[in-house]
């Protein structure tokens, strides 16, 4: 590990602390809101945004390099391209315009914050961060199991505003949200942490403490079991199928890098998953009840047909109405962030759109077109697909095997969420996505150092202190 200079080290530690706080606040936001007075609900809800704004000021004067600099350049170009949409939103409701920018573009900062928190030579610190993040599977699953055992009237099973959630149950079986504000946010977390669990298999931390070495040695089976329980106990197909699809794509990327690893570790992991899933279903069927109810065949269509319909609708249902609105709205939409969570609480315009027209664009592409028209559809998806291609090139360029294997799993979440995820209306999902991008950039920086290491030598300076120079 490289020791940084005093001031540089302080900066890194502050950013790393900020990242840990951001991740922890996202995971426990719902639980904290339930435990605190209702008047604190809004400040807690916006706490993640405050942290991201602090991160923005933290990196503002930094001399960015490499892939972090590239992301920053793309970010600035997209910001300029957003100006017509922000101006259009400002005319509709001035209050909504800054909120809209936050929803779409603020969280990109996390992609830069991650590599700045773990600069080249700080690989061990990054491995510990990955370990910390994946370990969060265990407490979140324990809370979810507790919720499952409690009646729906218990405070832990109420919404963050104290209302009963029985209306969202699956034929009487509660769909739990664990420590998160909403069931969907727990599903988002499970999708991303499933891929980071793949990273954890190859980037293994080391500890001086016997306790943490014990945790490192024996925690993975418990984390896998927690992932299975968490995914099914939510009753959310997005959690189960989303995590499975992210891992499946990750395994494909891993197979391209090394078929031997897939045939070795991959087979062992799949066997363990199957045995765990079978055993859990036999021992704790109540954990699977909500999911099974939601997956049962309906009157005319099977759950698979319904799922296929939802996937198709996610990408094409906006075509049913886009050309029925006037030309301006077809091009620039009805205003950014009108469909975002919470916008109707402070924006009278967003409230009138959502209540007066009884519209809720659940899917990301429909939301994008509704809010920003064809212009935003091209811009927003172009940006996202561009980031996916950017990260794919990084994955392809990695030389060190373990880094290539780790990024393979991150590519799974990046692709699935980047193409179909509701990044424009769900800040937690957006933060997870950009954190994934930042992790890929960070791993690339470690890979570069590994490649350069054999071609460095020490040259004494004027003070006879050794310095490292590339030769």
TrEMBL record:
This is O-antigen polymerase. The keyword Ligase does not apply. The keyword Membrane applies. The chain crosses the membrane at residues 18-36, 42-62, 74-92, 104-122, 129-150, 184-203, 215-233, 239-256, 263-283, 373-392, 404-425, 431-447. Keywords: Membrane, Transmembrane, Transmembrane helix.
